[in-house]
C-alpha cells in the first residue's frame, strides 16, 4: 500500500505544469557563501512550564498544540534537544529559500546578503532558528509566534548578536497582523500548518499578509503511509528524535491538498521540493521525492 501511494504521488508530481515540476533550481548553497544557521549556542530563557500564549484567542490555532510546544520552549537552541531535526534541516530549508526567493525578487543568489531591502515574516517562528539566518542574509525579519515563551527565548538569543538584534519578534498570530493590515514581501511558514486547527483559514491569512507580487513559502509533512512510518513511528517512538505526540498524522496535508488550499487563498504554487534524510551522513537534501517532508513556493495572484 505504501509503495502504491508513493508511486501515485510521484506520478502526480511529474504531471504538474512545467514551471513547477521541471524547475530544478534547488541546488545546495555555494560553499563560498556559508549560511550561519544557529548562531551562538547558549542556553537562554526562563525555566518555566507555565502555558503562555498570545493575549487574544487565535482563531486558527489549537490550544493543545500551543501547550505542547510551550512545554519544550526552553530547548529551542539546544541542537541536540527536541528540535534537533529542525536544526539539521535548517541549511536545506535555507537553500530552497535562497534559490526560489532570489529568483522571484531578481536577487543575486551568490551574494552574502541576497535579501537586502526585503521584508520577511517568519510565521510560527519558535525560538528564531530560521529568523536569525534570514536576517544574516540581509532581510528585515518579523518573527511571530502565539507562544509567549518562544518569543522571549527568541528575543534573548537574537540580542546575543548585534546583527540579529534587529529582528522584530511579536507574540501574536497571522490573523491579528491581517487585521492590522501588515504586508511583507515574503511570508514564510515552515512546519507550522500541520499544527493549526483550520489550514484553509491559516493560508488565507498568509495570503493576506503577502504584498502584491510577493512570495509565500509553506513546508509541511505529506499525509502518506511512508510519513506515518518515518515521521511518527520512527522519529517519535523508535529513534526518539521528537517527543511522542509531536505530530498527528490526520493533520498532515498531501501536496495536492496544500496546492488547492493555497490556490483558493490566492497563492499560485510555482515550485515544490521534498526534503530527504540520509541516515548515513545525517544530512538532509532537496529532492523530487515529496512523499514525506516537502516545501512549496508560490506567488500572490493579482
From TrEMBL:
Keywords: Magnesium, Membrane, Metal-binding, Methyltransferase, Mitochondrion, Mitochondrion inner membrane, S-adenosyl-L-methionine, Transferase, Ubiquinone, Ubiquinone biosynthesis. Residues 33-59 are annotated as: Disordered. InterPro entries: SAM-dependent_MTases_sf, UbiG_MeTrfase. Transmembrane segments: none annotated. It catalyses: a 3-demethylubiquinone + S-adenosyl-L-methionine = a ubiquinone + S-adenosyl-L-homocysteine; a 3-demethylubiquinol + S-adenosyl-L-methionine = a ubiquinol + S-adenosyl-L-homocysteine + H(+); a 3,4-dihydroxy-5-(all-trans-polyprenyl)benzoate + S-adenosyl-L-methionine = a 4-hydroxy-3-methoxy-5-(all-trans-polyprenyl)benzoate + S-adenosyl-L-homocysteine + H(+). It is a peripheral membrane protein. Residues 33-46 have a biased composition (Polar residues). Its cofactor is Mg(2+). It is found in: Mitochondrion inner membrane. Its main location: mitochondrion. GO terms for cellular component: extrinsic component of mitochondrial inner membrane; mitochondrion. GO terms for molecular function: 3-demethylubiquinol 3-O-methyltransferase activity; 3-demethylubiquinone 3-O-methyltransferase activity; metal ion binding; polyprenyldihydroxybenzoate methyltransferase activity. Pathway: Cofactor biosynthesis; ubiquinone biosynthesis. Component of a multi-subunit COQ enzyme complex. Belongs to the class I-like SAM-binding methyltransferase superfamily. UbiG/COQ3 family. This is Ubiquinone biosynthesis O-methyltransferase, mitochondrial.
Amino acid at each position: 500500500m505504501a509503495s502504491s501511494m508513493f508511486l501515485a504521488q510521484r506520478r502526480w508530481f511529474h504531471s504538474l505544469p512545467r514551471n513547477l515540476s521541471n524547475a530544478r533550481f534547488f541546488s545546495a548553497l555555494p560553499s563560498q557563501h556559508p549560511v550561519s544557521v544557529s548562531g551562538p549556542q547558549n542556553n537562554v530563557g526562563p525555566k518555566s512550564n507555565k502555558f503562555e500564549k498570545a493575549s487574544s484567542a487565535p482563531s486558527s490555532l489549537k490550544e493543545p498544540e500551543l501547550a505542547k510546544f510551550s512545554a519544550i520552549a526552553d530547548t529551542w537552541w539546544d541542537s541536540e534537544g527536541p528540535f534537533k531535526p529542525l536544526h539539521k534541516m535548517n541549511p536545506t530549508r535555507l537553500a530552497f529559500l535562497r534559490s526560489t526567493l532570489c529568483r522571484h525578487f531578481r536577487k543575486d543568489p551568490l551574494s552574502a546578503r541576497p535579501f537586502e531591502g526585503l521584508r520577511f515574516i517568519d510565521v510560527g517562528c519558535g525560538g528564531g532558528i530560521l529568523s536569525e539566518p534570514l536576517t544574516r542574509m540581509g532581510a528585515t525579519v518579523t518573527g511571530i509566534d502565539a507562544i509567549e515563551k518562544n518569543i522571549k527565548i527568541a528575543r534573548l538569543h537574537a540580542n546575543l548578536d548585534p546583527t540579529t538584534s534587529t529582528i522584530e519578534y511579536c507574540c501574536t498570530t497571522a490573523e491579528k497582523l491581517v487585521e492590522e493590515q501588515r504586508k511583507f514581501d515574503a511570508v514564510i511558514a515552515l512546519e507550522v500548518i500541520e499544527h493549526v486547527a483550520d489550514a484553509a483559514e491559516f493560508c488565507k491569512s498568509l495570503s493576506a499578509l503577502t504584498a502584491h507580487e510577493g512570495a509565500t513559502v509553506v513546508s509541511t509533512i505529506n499525509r502518506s503511509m511512508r510519513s506515518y512510518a518515518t515521521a511518527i513511528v520512527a522519529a517519535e517512538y523508535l529513534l526518539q528524535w521528537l517527543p511522542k505526540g509531536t505530530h498527528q498524522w490526520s493533520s498532515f496535508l498531501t501536496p495536492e491538498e496544500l496546492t488547492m488550499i493555497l490556490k483558493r487563498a490566492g497563492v499560485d504554487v510555482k515550485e515544490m521540493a521534498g526534503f530527504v534524510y540520509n541516515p548515513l551522513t545525517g544530512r538532509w537534501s532537496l529532492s523530487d521525492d515529496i512523499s514525506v517532508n516537502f516545501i512549496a513556493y508560490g506567488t500572490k495572484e493579482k
